[in-house]
Amino acid sequence: MTELTKLGVAAIREGVSSGAFTAVEVATAFNANVANAKALNAFIVETPEKAIDAAQAVDGDRAAGKPLGKMAGVPIGMKDLFCTQGVQTTAASHILEGFVPTYESTVSANLWKAGAGMLGKLNMDQFAMGSSNETSYFGNVISPWRRNDGSNAALAPGGSSGGSSSAIAARLCPAATGTDTGGSIRQPAAFVGISGIKPTYGRCSRWGVVAFASSLDQAGPMARDVRDCAIMLEAMAGFDPKDSTSLDLPVPAWEASLNSDLKGKRIGIPREYRLDGIDEDIAKMWDNGIAWLKDAGAEIVDISLPHTKYALPAYYIIAPAEASSNLARYDGVRFGLRDLPEGAGLQDMYAATRAAGFGEEVRRRIMIGTYVLSAGFYDAYYTQAQKVRALIARDFDNAWASCDLILAPTAPSAAFGLGEKNADPLSMYLNDVFAVPASLAGLPAMSVPGGLSKEGLPLGLQIIGKALDEQAVLNAGLAIEQRSGFTAEAKKWW
Amino acid sequence: MTESTYRIQGNTGAWEVVIGLEVHAQITSESKLFSGSSTGFGAEPNSHVSLVDAAMPGMLPVPNRECLRQAVRTGMAINAQINRWSRFDRKNYFYADLPQGYQISQLYHPIVGEGEIEVTLNEKDPDSAVKKIGIERIHVEQDAGKLMHDQHPTMSFVDLNRSGVALMEIVSRPDMRSPQEAGAYVKKLRSILRYVGSCDGNMEQGSMRADVNVSVRKPGGELGTRTETKNVNSIRFMMQAIEYEAQRQVDLIESGGAVVQETRLFDADKQETRSMRSKEDAHDYRYFPDPDLLPVELDDAFLEECRASLPELPDAKRARYEALGLTAYNAAVLTAEAETAFWFEDLLAEGVDAKQGSNWLMSELFGALNKMGKTLDESPVNPKQAAELLGLVADGTISGSIAKQVFEIMLETGQAASAIVEEKGLKQTNDTGAIEAEIAKIMAANEDKVAEYRSGKDKLFGFFVGQTMKAMQGKANPQIINDLLKKALG
Fold first, then answer.
1. Which of B56, B94, B294 sits opposite A328 (nearest CB)?
2. Which DSSP letter does residue B392 get?
3. N or C: which end of chain A has fewer CB within 10 A?
4. Numbered residues of chain A with Cβ closer than 8 Å to any chain B Cβ
5. At how many degrees (to 10) do helices B338-349 and B179-196 cross?
């Protein structure tokens, strides 16, 4: 049955629907891969029975001649940021360890309605804060990839959706949910050679997703190819009256409209992204991407996004500011961890609980966020950062006058080794430099595999589109996918 | 505008008191500001708590349009600027009654801007001074939960029923100069809220409470440092708190001290204010725009509907009543409280004459309720029943004095006026023969008075009317008595 785990979303759905195999066979095969991949530490909780239950329901529906959903028979991994009814949800934190929601997030509920089943809850950076998965309370995820230098160094799967990326690359699941606040879908997808799309802010409901930075957080799919991403995004997206920032628009038929002919499309190449000392492999991959899109019929144009260099500092003010407030609810009073030292009062309980419950990176960001919002600093930091954010959005608006899409690298380098960057938060933050501008502007952005580095590690190409134009982003992704010939896979060592 | 003459007499002379109020009024709505939970009062602890109210992970606020509508209607009722674009901010602090760790409020862009209300210092005196009190803003925010410290030896219990209930914070300008002005302002504000229906104004249940800012200065001088006394929940307490606080500040300054800007509490038992926390330990609330919520944008249709749904407000109603022929005093009393005005409106809607109705309501009904110690809401007689009684008087079926008897029986038994009149045989008689017979008897028994009357002592006419009515046991039609007496006495 190992062959079944080679299949992606579209192939599984078609096989189940045609009767080539059953959904239960698929779920069983992936459950086995999950159970045998403890070394990757990709899952915090495994739910094989949930995957089987959902598969049985799909097989039953098929037998009864009922119509099948978009994700019928596809078992998936669920990032642990999504609240799942009856299944522990921790955001990879100690403070939420043991927390079992009585409710289901809108996005996960949409997926179950579409016929998907849950293999388990995927590990991640704690509260989605991190780019390497090293901030998880439950230990870091390890990438299935290794450098070709024989060093066997353990590599970062990217973050924060590192459990998702690692699990898909290692074929523990054909697809998984991710969330992207400042690159958390795109960067991990790039690190392990898979695809992932962050849709326009507001496409996917945030209801039931543990909040990091509300004005930036956006859920999206991660999968093996562009078509699978389109299918899964259709299942996840949709207006939700329970989320005030949700877009009240119908979900387009992205999958059915996929078309890699880019005639008439103009692709912008932002000169500010070509940083001094840009990694040679990255520069080469970018050039290849340009050539592939040209080959697909697109016109290439030089563009300028002049405020790019201010994006990262602005992001690291806005996101922590919102996080410092969003994470205030973890106070030991109603759920999750409570540390009540002998004779402690309320304030002591807060301090002890939050000190014990939050990891170092989360504490750092709460401190930064608290600082930038405090009296006397608010205008210098938060207000300025909001102005920068508006300028970044305007940069993109101006760019759309001369192009329809933007092509750039997803990350400045291939996957780095675990432990290499976590001593220096700034060098870790720099990993988000290409991903953050699209997040600040709320634009759809996707990463697709663009080739391998000299060390044999995957590199990602990023496509940024106009608001609501996921279709053009997916189409360009498909055009690259068809030309890159990217078939590399991690060799199994786990 | 009249200047207040209220002064605190200190050793160094007279001091003027400057008062500003922040009134928190619970918005009348079925559900909370950002969740579908009920706002019902007096339920079992933690029975009106949704996942949003308890701030469970991943929960998001969704604004309740009705709460915003009520705030806008209130703003319109005080002639305030309505902001078509407003926004919610987060006020961050940790406390056990605040599950989110922040209160959603409006600091930077409130939904209602500048307005004013006209306050009559003594509503029962038509010649009383009138003062305009400026309103700086009205913003909408969430209420907190309730902590109970007396349920367990070492633990505090939390009741989140109130958590997330919508409040309007109505911030006045520091325009008041005496406890009386502050009291009159809150009374008028409460009356407007009740007319509009945006708050029940029930201070005992905590639907309305005030933060009282007080400072003192030499009349006309520079503003002094103010203190803020939090959560005062009755008009009487508020007036006491102002009095105490102003005196305390004067004593402090005159003995060489300085007023510290701080938050204080009012102790109703001791009738004094006490320091709660000083400015130094004041929270840094780290206000910032709530990223879970979009700005509130109000369109023309919405504003139009709000305006169209406003009832006639107290000042307009009072003027209309005066035009109907009511005395200024009656018009003022009948409009001061929404309950009274609504009761009177119902009475008029039953076809009762305005003057007859207002006189009866002010003397008979208020008198009776006063005696019973009941409020108008608890009146055993409703406007419809009262209208029937007054109708019987108006059409001559019973006399005014019989009406008083009937009303007393109505209060006791709850019976309808017509049934009482029927059962007790109180119908006014128009039987001229019977009346003439009594008149003849009375004239025979009072020959001296008849002579006096005939020699010009007109005042005695009343005596004969009274005697006749008495003989007829009050049931004779007074007009017929008059006519017959005039004829008989010549």
1. B94
2. H
3. N
4. 82-83, 89, 91, 96, 99, 101-103, 105, 206-211, 213-215, 241-245, 321-322, 324-325, 327-329, 331, 333-335, 346-347, 350, 370, 373-375, 378, 382
5. 40
Output the six-digit token pair for A315: 């992001």
pLDDT digit string (tens) for chain A, length 494 residues = 448 999 999 999 999 999 999 999 999 999 999 999 999 999 999 999 999 999 999 999 999 999 999 999 999 999 999 999 999 999 999 999 999 999 999 999 999 999 999 999 999 999 999 999 999 999 999 999 999 998 889 999 999 999 999 999 999 999 999 999 999 999 999 999 999 999 999 999 999 999 999 999 999 999 999 999 999 999 999 999 999 999 999 999 999 999 999 999 999 999 999 988 889 999 999 999 999 999 999 999 999 999 999 999 999 999 999 999 999 999 999 999 999 988 889 999 999 999 999 999 999 999 999 999 999 999 999 999 999 999 999 999 999 999 999 999 999 999 999 998 878 888 888 889 999 999 999 999 999 999 999 999 999 999 999 999 999 999 999 999 999 999 999 999 99
DSSP state letters, A106-145: HHHHHHHHTT-EEEEEEP-SGGG--SSSTT-TT-----S-
- B204 and chain A: CB distance < 8 Å anywhere? no
Non-local CB neighbours of B411 within 8 Å, separated by 6+ positions: B368, B372, B380, B381
Chain A hits for B51, Cβ within 8 Å: 102-103
Q: Which of B169, B166, B116 lies closest to B138 in space, CA to CA? A: B169
Enclosing H/E stretch for A351:
helix A346-357
Which residue type does A135 have? T
B144 touches chain A (CB under 8 A): no
Give B414: exposed, middle or buried? Use CB within 10 Å, 0-12, 13-18, 19+.
Answer: exposed
The HSE-up count of residue A288 (CA atoms within 13 Å, CB side) is 24
Task: Report the DSSP beta bridge partners of residue B148.
Answer: B157
State the residue for tokens 């540390």: A339
CA pair distance A472, B338, nearest whole angstrom: 61
Surface-to-core class of residue B192, CB atoms within 10 Å of its CB (0-12 exposed, 13-18 middle, 19+ buried): buried
ipTM of the complex: 0.96
The dihedral through the CA atoms of A406, A412, A416, A420 has a sign that is negative
Short-list A310, A436, A315, CA closest to A382: A315
Catalytic residue among A132, A184, A195, A246: A184
Residue of B nearest to A103 (CA): B51
Bridging pattern class, strands B8-10 and B13-26: antiparallel
Helix, strand, coil in percent for chain A, rounding step 5 = 40, 15, 45
Query: What's the CATH architecture for B432-489?
Result: Orthogonal Bundle (1.10)
Find out whether B71 and B107 touch, Cβ atoms under 8 Å.
no
Tokens matching residue A478: 């498909």
Taken in order of first residue, the domains within chain A and their CATH numbers are 2-261 (3.90.1300.10)
Residue contact B57–A244, C-beta within 8 A: no
Q: A–B: how many Cβ contacts below 8 A? A: 98
Reduced to 3 states (helix: H, G, I; strand: E, B; else coil), residue B62 is coil
Q: Is A50 an annotated catalytic residue? A: no
Please say if A160 is a catalytic residue: yes
For CATH 1.10.10.410, list the domain ranges present in chain B.
432-489
Report the distance separating Cα B209 and Cα B205, nearest Å: 10
Cα distance between residue A333 and residue A337, in whole Å: 9
Contact A83 B94 (CB under 8 A): no
What the block records as the tokens of A283 is: 């520069």
Q: Hey, what are B379's tokens? A: 């009146």
Other residues' Cβ atoms within 10 Å of the Cβ of residue B483: 13
> Are residues A174 and A224 in contact, defined by beta-carbon separation less than 8 angstroms?
yes
d(CA A249, nearest CA chain B) in Å: 16
What's the token pair of residue B309? 């749904």
